[in-house]
């Protein structure tokens, strides 16, 4: 029942294979952790001009102690970690107080990632992360933090080729590149919103850090200067300049992020049925996705990117780790022209055409539009209500602000509502269930039907009143659930039944008298409750045969 | 849409999910009421105490008491009965099927071939009423089916039944 976990008991292995250590240069890398507190100490000295108050001293001291502890632990890990590959397993030993000896069967390995951060790269090191199918505990994953670059590449090669030998994958030696970085794509970089957010985040962090040290950034000389100049220009001009500065910094920031993240990008198919994404300027990343674990793709089009005709492609695959890791590792392409994303999608899935665009998507009923319009109106009213309320109670001119708010917001939210409605769509295309949704960011997901391991239906009070439902396909891959929002009851259930034939059929009935929502109440289908134990289990569960025959005759008082 | 279109289409065209066959225990209503009271009552009680002991601010605390007590009592009165009408479960040789919720209602179907673990759990309040819950998990973090408010015997039998079926079928689509 429970999946046999990837971590098994060690076996007596081939003694010829020697144990290997991490690289000794790792000690230098670990010591570099001390650079951060040292730098902030120096920075504080610079800003305050050599004087330190007690608060700053305590902050810096505790930073230093933490860094020392981390370094100590890391050193211990280096000294005690050993690994080797034997026969059909990789073994890993580590720990001094809590010794662990783990061995993983090579055929359980889902992928081998190599990641090197800048410090690693200065010392020619890399981290090897061995992914297994076990998604529940991140502590179970195997990582070798700090082997030499050559060692890492060799280890990866050996692990994957041995695994293929063990699992009997065809090894057809045709590594081929699916996609390569085209620098023209950098035009999409400023359209990713992260730039502005990143700038604000950076400013916020700096402010908080300084504030913690009892230094008020607002009192610093050059900040005062800027504040003074702002006071001397009209408000609208100040706001305009701020917006322009933010946009420019944001654009520069996201372009830099793009360059750092996607420099040297290459997506290739390796022998033995794996996809490999290589990318990164400062931190080089190499993500391996087993094609067998690939359950589909997700096409993401954020608003700005969409207007520029761009899109990005994510893999829907299992074994990529928990939520956060999946988010980082699922990316198959940077923001690219939509056609390119679709081409990559088709190639990756081994289809002639990407199912995200090939599928004929059925639009959703008008009542779905009504729900979105209602939400738009609610949002507008709620936002405008704040200045309106304050205006009524405190300061009358705010009423004009409220009116302006409503006038500006209404068309915007209504446009968003219509756009969100037009985006809604679902369909089946060959092996794939395709669903599209999204307000600011449109997502089109193509999910392999055999990857669906459960069906959920949810209905809010309003959905029940307008005869709609939200269908959820659960899967072990990607986000673990993909939704088809606001379809009619009949369409939604028919879609589920077609996607996973036979699963829902025993639980369907023709829609007759009685409201759907209250069906549970009106049916009164024989209670399991009370007295007769052992009753519900093991008695005639041939659902199909009895599905229409249940009545209210066994209802409890 | 609603009634007009529904009557125009031929019968048999439209389908819906039928409710799962078995209700949960009647005792579950008491359990849900107790659970609701844990959330709903502490705040009104605090206001009531303040109302009694601080006479000058009685009007204020009086209103606060009413404003928190009325929705709390409504919740305690409506939610458990509504849940009892909705919560249902059923197993066949191929699947587990369960319904839950009240304002937001959800129906879940999981094929037994995809089940990874079957757990039985009883919280402290559930134990007071001799109730048990069964959680059926799959390889999907979002795919667990939870059936709460079962009698202990029923739950044990259910776990046994599910374990029997799921052991036979390999493969969990990870």
From TrEMBL, chain A:
Annotated TM spans: 26-48, 54-79, 191-210, 235-259, 376-395, 401-421
Pfam families assigned: bPH_2
Domain YdbS-like PH: 80-158, 421-496
Gly residues biased stretches: 519-541
InterPro entries with a match to the protein in the record: UCP026631, YdbS-like_PH
Keywords: Membrane, Transmembrane, Transmembrane helix
Top-level taxon: Bacteria
Region (Disordered): 519-557
PANTHER family: UPF0699 TRANSMEMBRANE PROTEIN YDBS, UPF0699 TRANSMEMBRANE PROTEIN YDBT
Protein name as it appears in the record: YdbS-like PH domain-containing protein
């Amino acid at each position: 029942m429970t999946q046999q976990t990837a971590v098994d008991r060690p076996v007596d292995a081939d003694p010829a294979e020697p144990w290997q250590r991490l690289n000794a240069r790792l000690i230098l890398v670990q010591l570099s952790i001390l650079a951060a507190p040292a730098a902030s100490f120096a920075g504080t000295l610079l800003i305050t001009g050599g004087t330190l108050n007690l608060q700053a001293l305590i902050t810096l001291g505790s930073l230093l102690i933490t860094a020392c502890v981390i370094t100590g632990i890391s050193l211990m890990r280096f000294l005690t970690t050993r690994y080797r590959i034997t026969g059909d397993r990789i073994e890993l030993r580590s720990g001094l107080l809590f010794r662990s000896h783990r061995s993983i069967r090579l055929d359980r390995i889902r992928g081998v990632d190599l990641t090197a951060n800048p410090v690693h790269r200065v010392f020619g090191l890399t981290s090897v992360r061995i992914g297994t199918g076990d998604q529940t505990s991140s502590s179970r994953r195997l990582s070798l933090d700090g082997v030499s670059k050559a060692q890492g590449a060799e280890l990866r090669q050996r692990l994957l080729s041995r695994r293929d030998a063990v699992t009997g994958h065809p090894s057809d030696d045709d590594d081929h590149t699916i996609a390569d970085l085209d620098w023209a794509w950098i035009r999409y970089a400023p359209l990713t919103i992260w730039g502005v957010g990143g700038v604000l985040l950076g400013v916020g962090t700096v402010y908080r850090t300084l504030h913690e040290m009892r230094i008020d950034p607002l009192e610093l000389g050059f900040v005062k200067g800027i504040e003074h100049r702002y006071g001397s220009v009209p408000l609208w001009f100040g706001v305009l300049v701020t917006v322009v500065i933010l946009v420019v910094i944001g654009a520069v920031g996201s372009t830099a992020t793009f360059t750092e993240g996607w420099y040297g990008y290459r997506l290739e198919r390796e022998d033995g049925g794996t996809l490999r994404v290589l990318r990164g300027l400062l931190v080089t990343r190499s993500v391996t996705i087993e094609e067998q674990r690939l359950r589909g793709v997700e096409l993401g089009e954020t608003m700005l990117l969409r207007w520029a005709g761009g899109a990005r492609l994510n893999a829907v695959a299992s074994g990529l780790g928990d939520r956060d890791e999946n988010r980082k590792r699922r990316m198959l392409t940077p923001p690219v022209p939509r056609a390119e994303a679709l081409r990559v999608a088709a190639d990756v899935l081994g289809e002639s055409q990407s199912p995200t665009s090939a599928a004929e998507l059925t639009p959703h009923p008008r009542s779905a539009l009504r729900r979105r319009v209602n939400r738009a109106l609610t949002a507008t009213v709620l936002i405008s209500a704040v200045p309106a309320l304050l205006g009524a109670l405190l300061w009358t001119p705010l009423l004009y602000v409220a009116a302006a708010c409503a006038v500006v917001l209404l068309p915007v939210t209504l446009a968003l509502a219509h756009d969100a409605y037009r985006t809604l769509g679902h369909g089946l295309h060959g092996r794939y269930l395709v669903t599209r949704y999204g307000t600011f960011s449109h997502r089109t997901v193509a999910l392999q039907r055999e990857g669906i391991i459960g069906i959920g239906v949810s209905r809010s009070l309003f959905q029940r009143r307008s005869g709609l439902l939200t269908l959820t396909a659960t899967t072990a891959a990607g986000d673990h659930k993909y939704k088809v929002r606001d379809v009619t009851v009949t369409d939604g259930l028919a879609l589920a039944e077609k996607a996973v034939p036979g699963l829902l059929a025993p639980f369907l009935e023709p829609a007759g008298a009685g409201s759907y929502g209250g069906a549970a109440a009106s049916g009164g289908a024989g209670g399991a409750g009370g007295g007769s134990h052992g009753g519900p289990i093991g008695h005639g569960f041939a659902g199909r045969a009895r599905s229409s025959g249940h009545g209210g005759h066994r209802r409890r008082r | 849409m609603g009634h007009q279109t529904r009557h125009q289409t031929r019968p048999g065209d439209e389908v819906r999910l039928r409710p799962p066959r078995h209700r949960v225990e009647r005792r579950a209503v008491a359990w849900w009421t107790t659970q609701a009271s844990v959330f709903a009552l502490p705040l009104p009680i605090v206001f009531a105490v303040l109302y009694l002991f601080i006479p000058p601010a009685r009007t204020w605390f009086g209103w606060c008491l009413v404003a928190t007590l009325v929705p709390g009592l409504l919740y305690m009165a409506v939610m458990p009965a509504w849940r009892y009408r909705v919560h249902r479960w059923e197993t066949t040789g191929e699947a587990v099927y369960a319904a839950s919720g009240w304002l937001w209602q959800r129906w879940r179907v999981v094929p037994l071939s995809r089940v990874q673990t079957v757990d039985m759990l009883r919280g402290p309040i559930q134990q007071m009423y001799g109730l048990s819950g069964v959680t059926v998990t799959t390889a999907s973090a979002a795919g667990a089916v939870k059936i709460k408010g079962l009698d202990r015997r029923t739950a044990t039998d259910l776990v046994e039944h599910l374990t029997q079926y799921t052991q036979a079928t390999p493969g969990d689509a990870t």
